[in-house]
Amino acid sequence: MAEIASAAGVSRQAVYLHFETRTQLLVALVRHVDEVHGFADLVRKCERAPDARAILSEFIGAWADYVAHITDVARAMRAARDTDEDAELAWRDRMRGFTGVCAGFVARLQAEGALADGWSASDAADFLATILSIGNWQELIEERGWSRPRYARALRRSVEQSLLRLIEIKTAPRRRS
């Protein structure tokens, strides 16, 4: 807190007036990063898609680009959480929020009858949040050199094959000659 206060040009006591704990400070930092980079706007834009399948596809594409803006903060939080209880609590808060967004998308899938059989809404939301995790993004894009479009295509395919009910295509009966 002293380092943060010094960097901000305020006293440590001033920081504590706004944030009682480092956890609160870290949660505020992550939420601020999301606000600056428009995460809520991104979600609202995706939610305007015509159906749940389109929402999911839009979100995966937007997420592929969005993570690039937050990966440095996420990397620092993920590294710190192993040895810093406050960072762990802040990370869990953020992941609950992200899983909540995924749960909203899954609820829409379920309401439209598009969620594949065998999935509970809770399990599907956990699965989606995990598939879209920042760690997976970093592994595929930063470590393995995938492009964002390749990442988005692969995740769309994985999510579609895992979570979405197959669409039955009805064809007209064949005429006998």
Secondary-structure element order, as H and E?
HHHHHHHHH
Q: How many DSSP-defined strands?
A: 0
Overall SS class? mainly alpha
Oligomeric state of the chains? single chain
Q: Could you state the CATH homologous superfamily?
A: Tetracycline Repressor, domain 2
CATH architectural label: Orthogonal Bundle
Q: Domains counted in the coordinates: how many?
A: 1
Residue runs with pLDDT of under 50 for 5 or more positions:
none
Number of helices: 9
Q: What is the CA-CA span between the terminal residues?
A: 83 Å
Largest sheet: none
Sheet-strand content, in percent, reads under 5%
Portion in helices: over 70%
User: How is the CATH topology named?
Assistant: Tetracycline Repressor, domain 2
Classified by CATH, the class is: Mainly Alpha
Polypeptide structure, described:
This protein has one domain: Tetracycline Repressor, domain 2 (Orthogonal Bundle), CATH 1.10.357. With 177 residues, the protein is an all-alpha fold. It is elongated and about 85 Å long. It has helices at residues 2-8, 12-18, 22-36, 39-47, 52-80, 85-111, 121-131, 134-143, 148-163. The termini are far apart.
In brief:
With 177 residues, the protein is mostly helical. 74% of the residues lie in helices and 0% in strands.
